[in-house]
Amino acid sequence: MKTSIATVSLSGDLRDKLDAIAKAGFDGVEIFENDFLVFDESPRQVGRMVRDHGLEITLFQPFRDFEGMPEPLRSRTFDRAERKFDLMQELGTDLVLVCSNVSSAALGGIDRAAADFHELGERAARRALRVGYEALAWGRHIHDHRDAWEIVRRADHPNVGLILDSFHTLSRRIDVNSIRSIPKEKIFIIQLADAPLIDMDLLYWSRHFRNMPGEGDLPVFDFMAAVAATGYDGYLSLEIFNDQFRGGSPSAIAVDGRRSLIYLGDQVKRALPESAIGVPEMPQRSAVEGVAFIEFAVDASEATGLVALVETLGFRKTAKHKTKEVAVFKQGDVRLVVNTDERGFAGSSYLVHGTSAYAMGLKVDDAQAALARAVALGAEPFQQPLDPGEIEMPAVRGVGGGIVYFLDDRSALADIWAVEFDPVDSAEAQRPAGLVAVDHLAQTMNYDELLTWLLFYTSIFEAEKTPVVDIIDPSGVVRSQVVENGQGTLRITMNGAENRNTLAGRFIAETFGSGIQHIAFRTDDIFATAEALKRNGFVSLAISPNYYDDLEARFGLDATLCERLRRNNILYDRDEAGEYFQLYSPTYGEGFFFEIVERRGYKGYGAANAIFRIAALRKHLRPQGMPAI
Hints:
25 strands; about 25% strand; single chain; 3 domains; TIM Barrel
């Protein structure tokens, strides 16, 4: 599979964009005319620069307002076309994109447009160039790829073909199966873009809210499956207009882009093995069986406070690493690893971020396969020197530079806790509190990173994303989306902060980066757990009494139940599937906290309670700039 991306998709000048595109592993680049016009080098120098990066110029675009113009405008369009052909030959590309006419002067008529394209094809053929016609979703007369194809068909010229763009087709809800009958040799290039479903003007939607395939809500897979049915085996190219991307890191956006194309190609190839879409060989998406462990990087002097908090939650120290200052605390199926070793990545992570949950281990069906797929999709593998007797755990870098480890039961990794750790017979100072498993992890990041990590998780693991939810913080709005699987063994809430005044934004600022901000444990009896926590000395997050007065009226709760909730600082929610109970710790360190939940069929994450939880948590934050205890 050959991959390409339009320069308009990235920030920076043309040189920055080409560097990022080449390093991400693309084969080609679409040169957007404005990127060239604002650049100081000549067309020949730009073409040489592209080739020096190991890239091919797949397309020069756009050529606007061509077909169906009355005289004398028609003659002028051909003069303009000749000038573009001159430029293309100097750049070293043979394909130009002609988008459907939006001019108020344009005349309708399929035959008129076909005649114009036949003449343009004749001119292009004399220079060994090709012309691709694309139907803009807001074109004056042509805004449907079926009409554009009819024009190309009637033009009947070998140098005139069709350019299909997923956004223009899907935004208008045009039947993608109409693509299947188009001869593959008449499809000159495929442009791909996704977008969130927003009810707005098509042009504005397209110019500001496109994103990578898999990051939005459009059925891009269905579009690509129809393209694959034609036998098409040419370039798949990204054309993404997005305000956020234009202000982001070109390297990060380029990596996301190639990951999205490889993932899409992999989906198509698995569904249609006979298709000509070639993709790198990789294992299928990994099934996550659960969260195997969460690891904290912490200084020895600060570990006492973290351990004390963990013990009040009912965790007991069960093991100590044979060669490192690493301890394991366990309850139910939950393992919390406290790493105070100054060597290795954990020590470096502490120096940068302070005490943090810097790593997580996911139990998958095949750890090596999970690693292989992640690397094939552009993830950065992680390794560090091993002590004698240690087992290498496959891993990649994740959110905020943290680590995602993979474990399984089919390899030596199944015995890692027995091989690397010695059991500890510690007296049970605290009793278990009934915590049985990790329900979900909450990762906080800059809003600009949200789409990156959603694509990261959904392309590697058998999981899907949920719609965006706005979390209302007294100091702003946080955008939240969830990655989850159907079994509930992987649930990650991802919170994108847009300013540092929100609780999420403050966490990023204080810890110098994105990361895990809270861990939610599941219990089968929230009230029994609450009583056990009290006996252990755990102090729950105090919730405003006004919340409970409203709760009773809003849900029609029994007064006795409402009083039990109030007495234990438990929040409540309900959806069509069942009930949900939440209990929180105050913040620890730079804004980290724990949550305990009970699900009675409930599918969500208590978003309606977030404003009350955030208000309560903010009362426990130390003033910014004060040293951590």
